[in-house]
Amino acid sequence: RSVYDGEEHGRFMEKLEARIRNHDREIEKMCNFHYQGFVDSITELLKVRGEAQKLKNQVTDTNRKLQNEGKELLLAMEELRQCRLQQRNISATVDKLTLCLPVLEMYSKLREQMKSKRHYPALKTLEHLEHTFLPQVSHYRFCKVMVDNIPRLREEIKELSMSDLKDFLESIRKHSDRIGETAMKQAQQQRNLDNIVSQQPRISGGKKSKKEFSASSELEVKNTSPMSEQDSGILDVEDEDEEEEVPGAQDLVDFSPVYRCLHIYSVLGARETFESYYRKQRRKQARLVLQPPSNMHETLDGYRKYFNQIVGFFVVEDHILHTTQGLVTRAYIDELWEMALSKTIAALRTHSSYCSDPGLVLDLKNLIVLFADTLQGYGFPVNQLFDMLLEIQEQYSETLLKKWAGVFRNILDSDNYSPIPVSNEEVYKKIVGQFPFQDAELEKQPFPKKFPFSEFVPKVYSQIKEFIYACLKFSEDLHLSSTEVDDMIRKSTNLLLTRTLSNCLQNVIKRKNVGLTELVQIIINTTHLEKSCRFLEEFITNITNVLPETVHTTKLYGTTTFKDARHAAEEEIYTNLNQKIDQFLQLADYDWMALEPGSRASDYLVDLIGFLRSTFAVFTHLPCPFVLQGKVAQTACMSACKHLSTSLLQLLLEAEVRQLTLGALHQFNLDVEECEQFARSGPVPGFQGDTLQLAFIDLRQV
User: Fold this and answer.
1) What pLDDT shows up at residue 555?
2) Rounded to 5 degrees, what are φ and ψ at 421?
């Protein structure tokens, strides 16, 4: 700047040129000094260049050879790299598959269990799969699909288990009959075993127990009663069957669907829903079971099937109660049983009322007892059933009375009303064995001889005993005391005597074609039956072990029945005699204006007196002196004479007879004398003095 400012530019340039020349001389000196070294260096560099070229060629050749040799190594290295990569991928895959395979196996197991309808294990598998395995592999797409399917699978398991339950409910509805039959067979076997045990001889003496008495009386019935041929045992089990074990309800029905469904719904948190559904369906089935068929009363099989279904229903419910916790409760079953008991009793009352066969009623009673014993064995109260049986007992008595009315009618209609002839000792003992009759005089008489009564006496007596046996059979197994049984039998027997037999006797006595001889024989027969009433009392006492002196013991009214029948027969004799007298008197044809009387009594009166003589002769020759002692013949004769006297007096005094001649009066006097002669002749022994003639005293005076 000072150069430019001082205008010393030329000088500065000169100085600068001089400075350059100095430096050039120094450089030239320096170069001259190092020139040989430079040349030598150049020479060496030229040599080095040649060697470097050789080295380059060698390196290039070596590199070429190395490249050629390294290609295979590079290929091997690449392969090794790929193998290492694959190995690493495989290892990772194995690790992932190790996690996934259990999931897939569990899912496969789940599908297999559902296919084989093992729903509860399937549900457990599903729970295990959801909470244990799927969370470990949740990022895989197929796992997400599984997770999405789990609610659907749960619902499917729920529906399938419910379907199995519905099939089970339908199955037990169909098989209730068989289940109930099996349960009642078990109860029958137990009762038979109890009876066998109770029949063993007791160490301590004393009266028979009720079961011993039942067995012994049943044996007696079999030995003496023709009805025993139609024994009314229910569900009798053959000997070989008794040795076999009868299967229980759990052996006949597979309850696993209920248990599975209950567990499944419990796991799914829907136990209350399941319990409600089960109870609702079973309640519907109970109503169906309790609906009796309309023709149930026609056969015993109808009742048996009805009872089997009810027993089967409650056996299943009892089994469910004791094998599950809370599916059904005791209160629920008790409520069902109360409903069933009321409907069953109502059905039995209705249908049993249609039954007119005492054998069927007795079989029904035995079936009801077995039905009650069976359910009582399962803890159900059955007192109402036994109370109802007492109602059926009254109906049974009525059907027995109707049946025995027919039996008595047949006996009375088929009787010949003649004393029973006996030709030998065997026949005599047979009749005495049938009817309690003892007569020392008759026993002393030689054969052939006659009993004073006709055949209907031993037959009626035997049938009364048969009736008592029939009543006794109904009282068996009703858990009644001996006094109650005795009272029941005596009341029914009284009805038989006072109503049924009495009506039959009255009908025989009142029928139009009955003869005087028959009426007399009826009097004889009823007298003997009246005497046999004390033997019937003893018979009932022997089979019930209740002494007649016991308080409240009902007495038999047979004596009154036979007395009434005898009195009716006597009245019928008097009425028939009077009717016969009236028939003869209708033939009377007096000529009240006759001038002269006849030489003898009127023909109609002679015939009438002849009829009376022959009639009373029959009375006199009957082999039964107590009839005469009982004044039957005297009363009949006195009644006939009084009626004849009164009728003749009415003929004489009737309004149409306004006048009569002395001849007509003499003729009438002859007739009266004929009557007085008949009275004096003593047609019936036993009258004192002229007692019989007094019947005509008023007529004589007129």
Assistant:
1) 66
2) -80, 140
Find the Cα–Cα–Cα–Cα dihedral 99, 102, 107, 112, rounded to 10°. Answer: 160
Name the strand (E) or helix (H) holding 199.
none
- Of 215, 219, 188, the residue nearest 199 (C-alpha): 215
Which amino acid makes up residue 505? L
Using CA atoms, how far residue 491 sits from 398, 468, 498, 553, in Å, is 12, 10, 10, 10
In 3D, which of 588, 590, 615 has the Cα closest to residue 604? 588
Q: Determine whether domain 587-701 maps to CATH 1.20.58.670.
A: yes
Give the pair of three-digit tokens for residue 202: 């007791």
CA proximity to 538, closest of 503, 588, 486, 587: 486
- On average, the pLDDT of the chain sits at 79
Q: Tell me the backbone φ, ψ of residue 468, rounded to 5 degrees.
A: -60, -40
Task: Give the model confidence (pLDDT) of 125-147 as tens digits.
Answer: 777 777 777 677 666 777 777 77
Is 90 exceeded by the pLDDT of residue 391? no
Q: Where are the beta strands (DSSP E) in 230-282?
A: none
**659 phi/psi in degrees, rounded to 5:** -155, 155
For 131-174, the three-class secondary structure string (H helix, E strand, C coil) is HHHHHHHCCCHHHHHHHHHHHHHHHHHHHHHHHHHHHHHHHHHH
Q: Given a cut of 60, is residue 204 above it in pLDDT?
A: no
Listed in sequence order, the residues at least 6 apart from 214 whose beta carbon sits closer than 8 Å to its beta carbon are 195, 476, 477
Contact 342, 385 (CB under 8 A): no
Task: Show Cβ contacts of residue 394 under 8 Å, excluding neighbours closer than 6 positions.
Answer: none
Confidence bin at 20 (pLDDT 50/70/90): very high
pLDDT one-digit tens code per residue, 606-658: 888 888 888 777 766 555 544 444 467 778 888 888 888 888 888 888 877 77
Q: Do domains 398-418+454-572 and 587-701 have the same CATH topology?
A: no
CA dihedral in degrees (230, 232, 236, 239; nearest 10)?
-50
In this structure, what token pair is assigned to residue 378?
A: 């399962």
Is 96 a residue whose pLDDT tops 60?
Answer: yes
Angle ∠(670,672,678) on CA atoms, nearest 5: 105
Task: Select from 3.30.43.10, 3.40.50.150, 2.40.50.90, 1.10.357.30 the CATH code of 398-418+454-572.
Answer: 1.10.357.30
pLDDT tops 80 at residue 687: no
Q: For 242-252, write each residue's pLDDT tens digit.
A: 444 556 556 77
pLDDT in tens, 257-312: 888 788 778 877 788 888 888 888 888 888 888 888 887 877 888 888 888 888 88
Q: Which helix (H) or strand (E) holds 482?
A: helix 482-495
In the chain, where are the structural domains located?
Answer: 12-136, 255-380, 398-418+454-572, 587-701
Which residue type occupies 702? V
Neighbours of 164 (CB within 10 A): 18
Measure the CA–CA gap between 616 and 637, rounded to whole angstroms.
8
pLDDT at 220: 37
